[in-house]
Amino acid sequence: MTAHILVVEDEPQVAQFIELELKYEGYQVTVAHDGISGLAAARELELDLILLDWMLPELSGLEICRRLRDTGNKVPIVLLTAKDEIGDRVAGLDAGADDYLVKPFSIEELRAWVRAHLRRFEEEEEKELLEFADLTLNRKTREVYRGDRWVELTAKEFDLLEFFISHPRQVLNREQILEGVWNLDFTGDSNIIEVYIRYLRTKLEAGGEKRLIQTMRGVGYVLREN
Ligand code: CA
């Protein structure tokens, strides 16, 4: 359910900036630093979006775009480019790119572009029913089941579980959980997360079911079967 984004960018600092930012936002991110490995990754991986630098060693972003479209690959592609002349834009769109992000760009622009182009991911986001293992969460009715057993949760417990089930198998640190569920800035000493995780586990495991919210000591928590 987590969107997988491929970043093809040869400038290490730019690549790292994008990677860290997108990972912080909760996306799965793969980075390639040249055109050949970028094209290979684009063909091998099941992706929701490609952020593709125009000027790359080995193979240009434009060429990668053209080759992917020629083989019927329809993944959304945003070209990252310092070029902002109209002629270049037309060439990029002709090659099959969906949009442009002109360098240098801000974190806010990056986030906005990524959201706008994560079409498939957004559709998933709209889903009412979220499932993980024997856990079912209904966003509309706010009901939770483990198998056939109804689990009664408070509003905050539901929000916390929804956050986990929206990021399955992904290690979530305290800052991400606080921001995602409580909309608070990280203060460093609050044990609110530990308290709520304990409540959730108690309720989710009341029928003797196995633990799904695992502790990653010193890192955070992850929704995983073992
Ligand atoms: Ca470049």
Q: What distinguishing features does this structure have?
A:
single chain; about 230 residues; alpha/beta; Rossmann fold; Arc Repressor Mutant, subunit A; 2 domains; 4-stranded antiparallel beta sheet; about 40% helix; binds calcium ion
| The CATH C-level class name of the largest domain | Alpha Beta
CATH topology of the largest domain: Rossmann fold
Spell the H/E element sequence.
Answer: EHEHEHEHEHHEEEEHEHHEE
State which percent range the strand residues make up: 15-25%
Low-confidence parts, pLDDT < 50 over ≥5 residues?
none
> Helix/strand/pairing class, anyone?
alpha/beta
What's the CATH H-level superfamily name of the largest domain?
Response regulator
Q: What average pLDDT do the residues reach?
A: 89
Radius of gyration: 20 Å
- What is the rounded distance between the termini? 19 Å
Work out the number of β strands: 12
What is the makeup of the main sheet?
5 strands, parallel
Share of residues in helices: 40-55%
Q: Determine the number of helices (DSSP H or I, runs of at least 4 residues).
A: 9
Which outline best applies?
elongated
What assembly state would you assign to the polypeptide chains in this entry? single chain
* Ligands present: calcium ion
Number of domains: 2
Proper CATH architecture of the largest domain: 3-Layer(aba) Sandwich
